[in-house]
Design a protein that fits this description.
By secondary structure, this protein is mainly alpha-helical. It has one domain. It is built from eight helices and four strands. The strands form two sheets. Strands 1-2 form a two-stranded antiparallel sheet. A two-stranded parallel sheet has the order 3-4. A hairpin with a 5-residue loop joins strand 1 and strand 2.
Length: about 230
């Protein structure tokens, strides 16, 4: 663990203590008890009932292009803890060079394009939820490299469990810039509740059906976050 990560973890711990003053007793009960139980139950149920779909997608991915079925990458979770996120692979295997995010669409496979538009590529994250590394609803878990680029306020997005979908995802997803995303993520952390999660879930289903905000542009998915002084208008 590098020094930057250690510093960020200390900031997260300090900010979490501050956030506890904002959370009501009902919020704390939901965050610490009800939400994890609901996440585990529905993730397990989803894996059981969607197992045939998992198998079909896995076979189609292998037939469509060379490479592994799953895409694995280290991401930052709750309290800045690093875990391995898993998704169905939607792109061709990288040559090993650092990928230019603006060329992601060029690497997108035919099957991957369908998986992304329907959000089926996210299904394997049910296993991340089972392991307690993620939630159904919460800020999206982002790259470890971003840790050194956040402001202290933006770091508070890690005070709650990261999710498959979240407030930023249903309010633009990849069609809004990073600053807007982080404002929504932090606001969610402060106002987390069962009702809010239910609203986000309903809006997520609506957005999937309407295919809203999947890509940032015709050329790519979402530019890398290089820090607030370097963020451009996308």
């Amino acid at each position: 663990m590098n020094n930057v990560h250690k510093i960020r973890q200390r900031e997260i711990k300090k900010n979490t203590e501050i956030l506890k003053d904002y959370w009501t007793k009902s919020q704390k009960l939901y965050i610490n008890v009800l939400k994890p139980v609901l996440d585990f139950f529905f993730a397990l149920l989803g894996i059981i009932f969607l197992l045939p779909l998992f198998l079909i997608i896995s076979i189609v991915i292998k037939l469509d292009s060379k490479g592994p079925i799953f895409f694995r990458q280290e991401r930052v979770g709750k309290n800045s803890k690093i875990f391995t996120l898993i998704k169905f692979r939607s792109m061709t295997v990288s040559s090993g060079e650092k990928c230019d995010p603006l060329k992601d669409m060029e690497r997108m496979t035919w099957v991957g394009n369908i998986l992304r538009k329907t959000s089926l590529d996210e299904l394997p994250q049910f296993f991340n939820i089972i392991k307690g590394k993620m939630s159904f609803i919460g800020p999206r878990p982002l790259l470890v490299d971003y840790l050194s680029n956040y402001t202290p306020e933006q770091m508070r997005r890690h005070d709650v469990a990261q999710g498959i979908t979240g407030l930023a995802q249903v309010n633009g997803r990849n069609s809004i810039n990073w600053e807007e995303k982080f404002k929504l993520d932090v606001w969610y952390g402060k106002n987390i509740s069962f009702i809010l999660d239910l609203k986000i879930l309903i809006k997520t289903i609506k957005n999937i059906l309407l295919k809203i905000g999947i890509n940032n542009s015709a050329e790519g998915t979402m530019p890398l976050f290089t820090g607030n002084n370097k963020v451009n208008d996308y």
